[in-house]
Amino acid sequence: MKKKLQSASDFSISGMIHRRIMDLDKDERDVVPYIRANISPEYWPIKLDDFIGNKKAVKLVKRYVEKLDEAYEHGLGFIFLGGNGVGKTTMQMMILKAAVDAGYSAFHITLPEIFHYIKLGFDNHSLLLEIHNLLRTTDFLAVGELGKDYHRQGSEMFMRSEFDMIFRHRRSMLMPTSLDTNMDLTELYDTYGESLMSLFAGSLKEIEMKGKDYRKTVQRRSLDVFFES
What we know:
Rossmann fold, disordered N terminus
């Protein structure tokens, strides 16, 4: 029998995570904390030393995870800037894995996903409470794809106010937040305004992830291994 599709009115993030966990084999239960943090399976076996891209970024993230308790105490994080496939998400996932391994709560979510869930929450109040609680209470939060879908007609003011409120709350509570974006600093200032960017400057270390599209390289290597074996 086919599974019944969920409607927007009964969708929940925790339910989605629970279904992923229930689909695991018994010998895969060690990755449950990673699933709860919404860390993609492709990053489960990866270590920082495996990264072949920006060495400065690796050095800074290594220092960060080595001083994770201090980073948590002061609410420090990163803004990873750069094009597609240069390792922004990889760096985010390495931070979240270190946080989970150290016993902190962690979660990865993209900005388009945040706004999608908030909009679904107009007809699903429990989901709205869930996403707001998740964004405000998670110890280490990683937000990806900053800027995408931000300028859709009629939604800019709503999205700006929502993101502003979320980040200001986490900043005031000294909760570590890391962001990644394809935009450069000028575009970030134009999009989010000088006031919010000043908050970023006080708590987030900027790292420009330069280089070729390493994601394509890794994916091509996996394809080659599959078809040659």
